[in-house]
Fold:
Amino acid sequence: MTSTWSSPTGDGPATAVPAAQKLLERDRVVALTGLVGGATVDKVQTLTHERRIPLLGANARPEFAPVADKPRDLSYTWHTSYNSDEPGIAIAAHIKTQVGDGTVYAIGPDYQGGWDELRGFTDTFTTLGGKLANPDGKTVFTPFPATENFLPYLNKAAETRPAAVYTFYAGGPAVAFVKQYRQSALKDVPLYAAGFLTEGSVLDAQGTAATGIRNVLNYSPTLPHAANQQFVAAWSAAGYPGQPTTFAMASYDAAAVLDRALAAVDGPVTGETLNTAIGQVGRIDSPRGDWQFHPTEHRPVQRWYLREVKPDGPVLSNVLLQDLTTLPTT
Amino acid sequence: MHVDTLAVTVVDGVAYGLLLAIAAAGLTVAFGAGGVLNLAHGVLIAAGGYIAATTTAGTWASLVAATVLATVAGAAGGGALAAATAALRGRGHLDQALLTFGIALIGGNLLTTIFGSDVLRPRMPAALEGTVMVAGYRYPVDRLAVLAVAVLVAAVGYVVLHRSRAGRLIRATVDDRAMVAGIGVNPRTVDAAVLVTSGALAGLAGALATPILGVGPGTADTTLLLSLIIVVCGGLGSVPGAVTAAIGVGVVQTVGVVTVPTAAPYLLIAAMTVTLVARRPTVPNGAAS
Structure:
């Protein structure tokens, strides 16, 4: 059996591409997984595709821009995660119901991830007849990663008297945004977000300032499925801190997909036979609930959940409120 | 923008500006008096921030301890830089810049190795976490506290620089090193003292900034860049110039970015360009020697 586990992908394409090359050429791996950054996935995808090696991403899925004017062939490319515009698409109808005729203020970070996340929401919300509170109907994008002081933006947003705010931030800026939101004139306006705003270690740093934030993601550690209860128990038993995140869950599923595909291969395991087997794994009984690969886009057709930050026993958690929708719909 | 929101944002800009002034004052004096171009200044600020973020535990005592510890660590770092750059005296700014740049790279990596790559924030006493109404506007208490400390430090700094013997010696060294040597004071002692003080102010500024900005892998570079912009716009070696420029930067970074959000990434550079083109070059005598 050939090892399928990769070296750390380091700081981006500059270190990750040589690492991937080494795995493909010297170690002759039959599959590659574990990539995080979108730019890295984009570069590595051309390498794995050339060699007919399945690439099973568990995190960012970039747009895969055409190479030399030809659309990318994604037959060897799979993801257990999601597209960046899906959280916003999934929650738009719910927010429209909540605000009724009220307006929603949209704000996010000025980079590809931020544009995708916010576009998913604003496009769907306005199609449903919703109105943005932003003066010109356009999302306010804050310079990234330079913005750490959100107070001026938040106080200006409060002038538009929105019924709710929708946002996406992740990592350090997510902590700053949430803490300063509770210090701003928007303090009492309901805050909705793509779930990354309060996912994982940032929630510890935000503390009670995050309480009450309603957000959307493809996973919640409080989902009642048996598969999730086992996953959460195994996570704690292994000594990992806090509760599992969507990132951990997607990597767990990537391993589960590879495990099942490897078991299904009859005869020698090559990139081709493994890729065919991945295409035939069918429904995955996952901590996030059952899902399966989209037949042509090779990413999960999965349920999205509405969550609210509140205490779950001794810790703050993204507690499941309800199912929202299943995406992609076509 | 409405007048009330504008007022709150201007206060925020001034608070931010005074914070930057504390950070940049040391840098400008070190250059003006000793001719030391200290590119490791940002690392001292980041170190102060990390110390504050990891020492605070939500109590007043830990907050005071964190502030003092960050200041002392900054002073120690300044002392080390003084020793390192003293050996390069007479070899010009470029050698010093290269040395301090190398120290900045190593120091920055050490900080990331020790404290990790997450953005850290201090744990403030509960009384500082909330908001108060000031003249009818909501404003975070922690920022008011930072503003108060920043005003205090600026006032003390002014008095020390203009009313004490030590301050007069520093200003004299900026103006004319030879004359200072002539009255029996070794200008190199003044240089070292300035670098230690400059480091202490950097550490303090780092600690004061963490409740608002957090501290992470980008902090050292960002604060060094802002400090250099302030030093250059304010006039090399001029403390009042640095304070004015710092408040200008603070206001541009708060009022400016929300007034014309589409131009936000370019506003600061544009403001700097206008300032430099409009102002006649002033280089203090001490810097050239």
Summary: The first helix of chain B runs from residue 3 to 34. Residues 3-288 of chain B form one domain. The mean pLDDT of chain B is 86.
